[in-house]
Structure formats: C-alpha cells, structure tokens
Write a structure and sequence with these properties.
The chain is mainly α.
Length: 522
C-alpha cells in the first residue's frame, strides 16, 4: 500500500531526497579506486592494505544489506535513511581525516567498513520509501528516475575522483558531506511517511547471513590475490555457502525472521532475482574492465576513461525512462526481455571492435549496451520489490541487493581470471614470435600479467607500452565482453521463459496492513 494523499510536488521532493541519499553509495563504488595509488603512497599502506581500503566498503555493504532491509521495515524507513546518511557522512569524514603513521591502515579500513554499514542501512529504506510513496501504476516512472540517475552516478566516480585527487585524495571522501547535508534537508522538507511493523530482530539469522555473504564475497575478492590454486579460496567460499544454506533452513517457520524466505515461493520474484543476478554479473564488472581497456589499450587517463563510460550512461538513462513507462503500461516482461537482448547485442559488437584500438569505432556500441541495460534493470528491480507486502519493501530490497552484490563479486573473480589467462596466453604467443623460447615466453608473460598495466599510473600515456601488449590486453578484455554478451542473452532467456506478461495487480489490503495503518493513526 503506498502513501495516500501525497501530491505530485511532494512526491517529487521525496524522490529527490532518496536519490540524493543513495547517490553517495553509487559514487563510492568507483571513486576510491582512482585515488588508490596516492592513498597508498601518502599513508604508506601495504598492497593488501590498499586493497582492503577498497574492498572493506563493498564487503560490509554486501554482508549487511539484508539486515538493513529488515531494520527499515521494523524501525521505520525514514528513520533508517536518516541514520544511514549520518553514518555514511560521518565515516566519510573520518576516512578523509585518516592520520599518517602506524594507525593509518587500520583506521581507513575500519571506517570504509563503517561506510558500507551506512550504505546497507540507507539503501533498502530509501527504495522502500520511493515504492511506498508511489502507487503501483506510477512506480515504473519514479524508479526509472531513481535507478537512472543514481546508477549514472557510478560513472561520475572516476571523473570526480580524478579531479579531486589532483587537489587531495581526502577530497574523495569529503565530497560526501555536502551531498549528505542536502539529502537530510530534503528529507526534513518532504517528510516521507511510510508504514512499518515493529518486531524483534533475529540476531542469529543476522550472524548466519552476514557471515555467509562475507565469507563467500571475501573468497571471491581474494581469488585474484591468492590465486585459485590456494585452497583457502575454496574453503572460504564453501564455508560461506554452507552458512547461507543453514540460514535459509533456520529462517523457515520463524515467527519473526530476519528474512521471510516464503517470498521465494513467488515465481516472479525468484525469476527477477535470477535476472538481476545475471545483469549485475555484467554491470559492475563492466566498469572495471572497460576502464582498464581504456587506460591500457586506448591510452586514456582516469578522467578520459570516465568520460568514455558516460557514453554507456547516455544510453542507460534515456532507455531507463522508457523501461519505467513500459513497466507501468504493459508489465515487466517486455522491457526486461528486450533490454537484455539489446544489451547482449551491444556487448557483442563492443567486444568485436576492441582490437581496433579506436574509440570512434566503439562509441555507438557502448551506447547500445547501455541502452539495453537501462531498459531492463529498473523494471526488473521494481517488479521484484512490488512482489512483497507493503510492510516488507525494505526486506525485499535487502534480498535483491544481497543477490546483486553476491553475483557481481562472483563475476569479478571469474571474469578477472579469464581476462588474465587470455592476456597471459596472448603475450606468451607474441614473445615466441619475437624469438623467445616457449619456456622463456611463458615465464615473461606470467611476470607481465602480475605487473601494473594501468597506462603509466593513469597518466593516459601508452608510449612506454608496446602496441602488441596493448593489443594482447584488448583481446583479453574482448573475451570478457563476449562472455558478458552471453550472460545477458541468458538473462533474456530466463525472463522470456520465467515471467508472465501483463501488468501486476495492485496489492489487496491485508489485515496486517490495516492493523499497522490503524496503529499508526492511533
């Protein structure tokens, strides 16, 4: 049940407030990696330390999304958005104030994890507020703006990070403070009201799911550092998967579960979770691999690489609005299937032209890939959340975000391994052609792929890198993008076979909803 009696002007203010709140979480997914070399050199962090300065945020957010969603449904969505924004802004300020010396590494890793906690508290509650504010027939348009603008900010991270780092790397954290203040002001003005259901928190369930997601994602993150031959990788992933299985069995039948697993009986919800997992296995890794290709193979600096990714979001933001309107008019199936097919074609054509090392031959294919993703991600996410009760929108969002982050972490690990393997094989072949023995070539190739090929540290110059190395790297990324095209085609097939056509029927008022509304009125 959405909020009644809310005018369109106030709804717009609520939407703006929630977009502003979650903007910080999207920007921080990509902005820190740009400043990582300067952070490491100034704070004298170890290689592992700087890696965890990046990963601690993503790991904490992935592990705690389900907790944040449940809290928002039981303590109030607006309250949790405000708490999340304050936690995120405060931890951002403290990251920017990281002292030099022995304390630096533990300080920045700790407060990056606290940032992730803030994001996990904020995002499910913010999305629940938007869903509650708009009637079912209006949500497609509203959430198209939410996902289109907030998602587009992911591409702003590398550009903004590049400019701020020229001033000071601390600025990449401090930029969140004015954004948070604007978000809090808009929340105070718009005063979003939603129903919620006070209930005890299932802390055993929290430990199980947080531990399961954290261990699994940790294993995926460490795979490119330790290597897949290290048994600790498989042990971590297996232990995480086992905890998640125990969590699922534990939650069934509980009177106040952390996650109502009965929602997985809804076929459309399950199908959309699978579609979102496949889409996120492409979406977030795309930023990393496209940026690396732009830096090494095309010789672009961080700002130029970020501008190249804006072509992707040019297509994404336009079709996100079309997808939202289609959802309201004809349901989720058509935009999800069509978008996944268009994205598959875009990624395939993008990959096919990568060895040209010419941006002008890639531009329209980048736009096409973005258009496909924009058409399907918003409707898929919105349709999944719509399947929940109005008192469980935060919980449903927590589930979908956990699935999305889990899938992207797995994809990063697998696609990174594939890319390095192809790159290493191509370099070895090139060295053999230049006269080295096979053994020497393989040894040199292994050493090369362990090195840092980031185009001179992000300067945009590839003059010191032979063209054949740039081309070999392009072939490695090309294989990754071909796989991405196949994954999006699989997403289209899942949606085509698993979803039913037509617009979803509005939620019928339940005794639980009516009781919550009466209690609130009283």
């Amino acid at each position: 049940m959405s909020t009644n009696g809310v005018g369109s002007g106030r709804k717009g203010l609520v939407l703006a407030a929630m977009i502003c709140a979650v903007a910080m979480t999207f920007i921080d997914q990509t902005i820190v990696s740009i400043a990582a070399p300067k952070i490491q050199s100034e704070l004298h962090l170890s290689g592992t330390g700087v890696q965890w300065a990046i990963n601690a945020y993503l790991l904490a957010m992935a592990a705690l999304f389900a907790f944040g969603g449940r809290l928002s449904d039981t303590l109030g969505h607006r309250r949790m958005v405000v708490i999340g924004v304050v936690v995120f802004a405060a931890s951002s300020a403290l990251c920017g104030l990281t002292p030099t010396g022995a304390l630096a590494q533990s300080w920045i890793i700790t407060f990056r994890a606290v940032q992730g906690l803030g994001g996990a508290l904020m995002y499910p509650a913010a999305l629940a507020i938007v869903v509650n504010t708009y009637e079912l027939r209006e949500r497609g348009r509203a959430l198209a703006l939410f996902f289109g603008i907030a998602g587009g900010l992911t591409a702003v991270g590398p550009i903004l990070g590049g400019y701020l780092t020229q001033w000071t790397w601390r600025g990449i954290f401090w930029v969140n403070i004015p954004v948070a203040l604007v978000a809090l002001l808009l929340i105070w003005i718009s005063k979003p009201e939603t129903q919620y259901r006070p209930a005890p928190i299932d802390y055993r369930g929290l430990i199980l799911i947080a531990g399961g997601v954290a261990l699994s994602v940790f294993g995926f993150q460490q795979s490119h550092v330790w290597g897949w031959a290290n048994p600790a990788i498989y042990l971590s992933i297996a232990a995480g998967a086992a905890l998640l299985l125990v969590f699922f069995r534990y939650e069934r039948g509980r009177t106040s579960p952390l996650m109502d697993v009965a929602i997985f009986r809804d076929r459309a919800f399950v199908v959309q979770c699978v579609v979102l997992a496949l889409a996120m296995a492409v979406f977030l890794p795309m930023f990393f691999f496209a940026s690396e290709y732009a830096a090494l193979s095309l010789g672009q600096n961080a700002q130029q690489a970020g501008l190249t990714l804006l072509y992707f979001f040019l297509g994404f933001m336009v079709t996100a609005q079309i997808g939202g309107r289609m959802l309201d008019r004809v349901g989720a199936k058509r935009p999800v299937v069509a978008g996944a097919v268009i994205a598959a074609v875009g990624f395939y054509l993008w990959a096919s032209k990568m060895p040209s090392l010419n941006l002008s031959t890639l531009t329209w294919y980048i736009v096409l890939a973005g258009a496909g993703m924009g058409l399907m991600i918003g409707p898929s996410n919105t349709d999944a959340v719509n399947r929940a009760s109005s008192l469980s929108y935060g919980e449903a969002t927590g589930i979908t975000m956990t699935v999305r982050n889990y899938a992207s972490s797995l994809s990063f690990a697998v696609l990174g391994t594939v890319m390095v393997s192809i790159f290493q094989s191509r370099i070895a072949d090139s060295l053999v052609q230049q006269g080295l023995s096979t053994a020497q070539a393989q040894q040199a190739a292994a050493a090369a792929t362990r090195g840092d090929y980031s185009a001179g540290g992000g300067s945009g110059s590839t003059s010191s890198i032979p063209k054949w190395v740039r081309l070999d790297f392009a072939h490695g990324v090309q294989t990754v993008f071909y796989i991405m095209a196949g994954v999006m085609l699989l997403a289209a097939l899942v949606a085509l076979l698993g979803l039913r056509g037509g617009v979803q029927a509005p939620e019928a008022p339940s005794a639980e909803n009516t009781a919550a509304a009466d209690a609130k009125a009283a």
